[in-house]
Amino acid sequence: MSQSCSVEKCTRTSRGLCDCCQQTLCLQHLTAHNALLISQLNPLTDEINILGNRLNTLNIQETIAGSREKLEQWREDCHKKIDYFFNKKCQELDQVVNEKVDQQRTELNQIQMKIRDLIDAQETTREDIDSLTSIIRQLETNINNIEQTCFKIHTRPLMIDETFILIRKITEHELDLSTLSPVYNTIHRPAESFRSLTCNDRYFLIHQHPCLCLFDREMNIVKQMLWSYGAIQDMCWSSTLDRFIVLEKNNIYLINENTMSIDNVLRLGKRRWISCTCSDTVLFASTDKRASSLVEFTLFPMMELIREWEYPRTCAKDEIIDGIIYNNEKLALMIVNLFNESLRMELRYSKTLDRIWTLQLDIRCVQKKVFRCCSLTCNEWIIVDYETERLLQITKDVNLFDLILIIYLNLKFTNCDVSYLDEITSLDLTIKTNDIISHTFDSDMENKTFQIQLSFLIISILLHKSDAIDYRYHNYSEMTSILQDLASRYSTKASLVEIGKSQGGKSLWAMALSAYAPNQHVLLRPEVKYIGNIHGNEVVGLEVLLYLIEYLLTSNDTLVYQVMNRSRIWIMPSMN
Fold it and tell me: 241 and 130 in one domain?
């Protein structure tokens, strides 16, 4: 039996199923729907034509003008250095000749004075004549030598390393602190105001005593409400709830930005809170006490406690979690050690609280104020150091695991099968107590020791499986020659240092590797060390590290450059 058209009040028989609305329609309405779809092609055509015109009129030279200017500046700087060096050597050449000429001129003046004295006295001897004649002949010979002098100039070709200039596309939202503009506006807040702030994509929320204020991007107050509750510990924005979350010492408030009113209050009893952040589904809050706990609440359909992480999973007994920030399924924790007043940042997985990396900061927590950070795109973070009035940009490349990953991924220098390492890399290089590597070492080892041993294990396995490395023994003289040659050829990336003497009186060599200032310690740049031959002929120690040095200095791989640029690697192939 045939069906009637699905359009209301249409009594015609349906002729087919419409693709756009999934209804059975008559021929007339099918035609109308088809015409409607076709009509939507015209705006798309207009849009693609506009994009095509933009592409055709795109001025490439204008786009890259700033980058070309930097290249031109680099070339001018290089020319200046070459000109300076050239002029310096020309001056040295002139100085050598002028010293000889001045010496002969002094001797000539002395002879002239002696002859003048003899003439004035009208008295001389045969011995005087012979002596003067001999001196004049010698002076003539010296002047002839100067006129015929030919200097031998030894020069070497100027070697340009490809890594001197690396062109890297900047991620669209990447932040460069060096390009920040000066302060263009300031909000002057009463001293009684609470320090926390948060934002969404339209406004930012701060407490300006006695009100909670909503500011726009131009830093104008849009809305405000009287805050008659307790001290605000922290705030965050929930896109799921479309609300600001305000954390008081004992309660959690939901603030509606449209009405600037409190929609809900979650009373949490005797717990004291210090920081909060949220994902799409979970609110995380840390407690204000030694050995802080980390508590999770569901956001929807109602806010309920679902899990609590406690000491020692969170931090040590004499530590407190000052701040927490969620980003991309990870939690950044700002942890203060109350005993030694130190601060470190840890990145952890939000679901398991497993540690990804930890970074000890050179900050002393003297003023007893909380330390907070904020997340950026590209897995980067900003820390406000109020102790020294600095902004610290923490990038995803600050940890040692990048070096491990680079050596693992860039197997073109080994050409070997590393499928047996899949179980290691499948862990995302996260430290776990029950993984395959843990059984190789002590189960209670510290994380830093583990990182060094894990990375060296992977390097050793890769190089051991490769036919590219010569495993013959290099004696002390050969090792020294190799290190000195590499330090000379790659002086911008390698610095060879004598750190002491062995019992036999031999120099103990350590090489610092970095794409930026290898001979300097740079704030927040992580440093690692490898020590090879400790007890005699240890080929896996000495030879692997010699090969690793050469690979890090000669590789043009972008990832290797990133590690060399972000860290300083100390390598000591042998201790005897």
Answer: no
Domains: count for the chain: 4
**Residue 418 corresponds to which tokens in the numbers above?**
């590393």
Asked whether residue 529 falls in the same domain as residue 483, the answer is yes
Say yes or no: 335 and 220 in one domain. Answer: yes
Q: Give the burial string for 238-272 (b: 16+ CB within 10 Å, else e).
A: beebebbbbbbeebbbbbebeebebeeebebeebe
* Residue carrying the six token digits 């840890």: 346
Domain that holds residue 365: 177-394
Q: Which H/E stretch holds residue 265? A: strand 261-267
pTM over 0.70: no
DSSP-assigned beta bridge partners for residue 247: 234, 252
- In tens, the pLDDT along 125-181 reads 888 888 888 888 888 888 888 777 767 777 778 777 776 777 766 555 456 666 677
Q: What type of residue is 93?
A: L
**Do 258 and 230 fall within a single domain?**
yes
Q: Is position 435 within any domain?
A: no
Considering the domain architecture, whether residues 263 and 361 belong to the same structural domain is answered as yes
The pLDDT tens digits of the residues spanning 445-502 come to: 344 444 444 444 444 444 444 444 454 567 888 888 889 988 988 888 899 999 988 8
Which pair of tokens denotes residue 151? 């200097």
Q: Which amino acid, residue 384?
A: V
